[in-house]
Amino acid sequence: MKRRAFIQSGTFAATSLLLARSSMAEILKGKKAVAPIGLQLYTLGDLMVKDPKGTLEKLAAIGFKELESAGSQKGNFYGYQPKELAAMIKDLGMTWRSAHVGGAPFTIEQVMKMAKSAEDSARIKQMFEKFKDRPKPQNLKDNYQQLADDAAEGGLSYLVCSSIPVSTLDEIKTAVEVFSKSGEACKKVGVQFAYHNHTTEFDVVEGHRPFDYILAHTDKNLVKMELDLAWATKAKQDPVALFKMHPGRFPLWHVKDLDKTTHNPTEVGAGTIDFKRIFDNSKESGMKYFFVEQDGAPQPIQNVTDSYNYLEKMLH
Fold first, then answer.
1. Of 65, 225, 277, 309, which sits with the fewest C-beta atoms within 10 Å of its C-beta?
2. Residue 152 to residue 179: CA distance in whole angstroms
3. Is the dihedral of CA 98, 99, 100, 101 positive or negative?
4. Could you give the number of structural domains in the chain?
């Protein structure tokens, strides 16, 4: 009886192991190993200034797990200290993973060079008029160590330069210097530095594309990229081709779609970008986290809900 029991128990254990392996294989086959769906809070407009806690509660209810902050009328952290904002986010079951900060102050002339239409020019002038009397926000050129320390205080994994002037070769060289210093400062406190692109990084400036120049002249371990999939696509770049050119250099993505008619940002899944193909190549990019973003979202909570639902279905 003892021998029979032993054989039976061994058979049961072996069968259980095979079933476990089979189940895991099915899980891995049917469910992609991707990061939780995140959100760039810039998408929400003024909601994070008017009602930060209530807005965060709505995001948690939608299902978002990772957040990336952006500068606001109340500073980089919506009027909170980094520890306070991190605690509020954590209490709601989410993780504050990354923060956007400015690279260097823009003059109106520098920003006007990026305008693609008369509508863009009018919007830029209106923005500068609106903010002209506000104190200059901290930026990486002048405050890189303080911003790195703030990111560490908030327990962030990444500090990201949201934008920096790159319309002349001198400006591009300044960006390289700022990023190198910021990368070193972040490394000292256990944070990874990264740079977020727009379309202008792919314009040729004095014989150089800023995107290529910056990646070639910075340490790949100190300066990573947050690839904005929509802006890269709008600049006629293939994100997958960029992954192959610089494997492992894109740990962060902005998942943003482009409207079929206007080519402006729209809800993820409602536009022209083939996200399935891009996500299928996420390993080559080195992607760790991604954040839904929609500039100028007309109905932010509904818009991000729709984007979340599309990605949840596509990825799982």
1. 277
2. 17
3. negative
4. 1
Residues 193-237: tens digit of each pLDDT:
999 999 999 999 999 999 999 999 999 999 999 999 999 999 999
- Residue of 170, 169, 161, 166 lying closest to 143 (CA atoms): 161
Q: Is residue 45 part of a domain?
A: yes
Percent of all residues in the chain with a pLDDT value above 90, rounded to a whole number: 77
123 belongs to a structural domain: no
Mean per-residue pLDDT over the chain, rounded: 88
CA distances from 191 to 6, 111, 158, 195 (A): 53, 29, 6, 13
Q: What percentage of the chain exceeds 70 in pLDDT? A: 81
| DSSP state for residue 31 in the 8-state scheme | S
Residue 161 has pLDDT above 90, yes or no: yes
Question: 155: domain range?
Answer: 35-104+139-315
State pLDDT tens for residues 140-151: 999 999 999 999
165 contacts 104 by C-beta, under 8 angstroms: yes
In a domain, 124, yes or no: no
Q: Please, are residues 254 and 196 in contact by the beta-carbon 8 Å criterion? A: yes
